[in-house]
Amino acid sequence: MSGQGLHIHLDPVGGAAGDMFIAAMLHLRPDLEGRVMADVAAVLPDGVGQARLSEHMASGITARRFNLELATGGSAARHGVETTYSAMRGLLEAADLSEGTASAACGILHRIAEAEARVHGIPIERVHFHEIADWDALMDVTAAGSICAALKGATYSLGALPLGGGLVDTAHGKLPVPAPATALILEGYDWHDDGVAGERVTPTGAAILAHVTDGEPVSARPAGRLRGNGSGAGMRELSGMPNILRASMFDTAQGGFEQDRLVQLACDIDDMTGEELGAAADALRESSGVVDLVLLQGQGKKSRPFNRIEVLVRPDLTEAVAARIFDLTSTIGLRRTTVERLLLPRSLETGANGIGRKRTGRPAGHETLKAESDDLSMADTLAARRSLAITTETDK
User: Fold this and answer.
1) Gene3D superfamilies of this UniProt entry (predicted)?
2) N or C: which end of the chain has fewer CB within 10 A?
C-alpha cells in the first residue's frame, strides 16, 4: 500500500473528529479496513471491546461510523498514571502494530500533548489527558496513524473548518469552543461560521488534520483524476446539514509522474567566512530530514555580496532542521515555503561492473541510466571517472 501519486481533500461539512476521519477514510478506502482493525485490536486490552465500522445515513447521505463497541462489563474509562502522555505513547510504541503505525500515531498524540502543555503552562512530560484519556480516543489515534502510514506519500488539503459556538464541558469546567487545545493545534488554518453552535472540531480531530497537512493550512488541491469519495459521520445530528467529514481522493500521478511535498527553508548571509559557510553546509547536508541543499551568491542591500542557503526538508522534520540552521549559521530569520515536486519513477540497481546506477523511466517511454557519483570516486583521473560512468550507463 502507498499514497504516492494520491491527493486527498477533506471537506469538514459537519466538523472533524477522530472517528469521523477514520470512518471517511475507510469508506473511501475499504481495502485498509483489515490493517486498521488489526492495529486497533493490538492496542485495546482484553475485556474492553472492539472497533466497529458501520453504515449510516446522515441527512440522506450514505456514510460510515467508527466507534468502540464495549464488551459486556467493559469500560472505556481510564484513570491515573495510564492517562499521561508518556504512558499512552509508551503503549503505542510497545504494541505489535503494522509498519509505520506507531510513528504516525505518536506524531498525532504529540500534537495534542504539546497543545495541552501550552494551555496549562507545564512541561509536556507532565501532561495528563482528560477528554482524550479513554480507550476510544486512543483507538482513534491508533486507527488514524494506521491509515496515515498505509498512505504514506499522499498529500492532503483541507476546506475551511466550522467554528461552532457556545461552551463545551471539560475537566476544567465549561470552556468556549473551539476548545483551547483545538485552537492552538489549528492556529493559522481557515475557519468559517455557518451559524451552527456546539463543538465542531475536537482536539483529536484537530491533531489528525494538522498531522496529515504537516501543520500547513493547505486548501488548494492539485489537478488530478477523481478516484472516489468517502464520508464519515459524527454522533451528533445537525439541523440543515449532514454531520459528515468528506474525503475525496485524486490521482495526481498522470503522465508517469509521482508527486510529493517538501518544505524549503532559505536565508541570506553576508557575515560568515567561506570556511564557516562551507562547514555549516556540510553539517546541514548530513542532518536528518534534509533532502537537498544549495548555496547561491547574490548582491543585497548597500551592494553587499551575500550567500543564500536553500534547504529542502521533509515536512515532519522542518522544525528540527530550522533549529539546526539557526545553530550553525549567523542568520536570525528563515523563509519557509511549501514546495511540490513532480518525480519520475526510478529504481536503484548495480551494474555489471559493480557501480550503482539509477534507472529512470521517461514520459516518452524510454529509460535512462545514471551512475551513482559516490561510486565513481575510485577513479584516479577525470578521464577514468568519465570512462567508468559511460561503461555503467551503457551496460545493459
Assistant:
1) Transcriptional regulatory protein pf0864 domain like (3.30.70.1380)
2) C
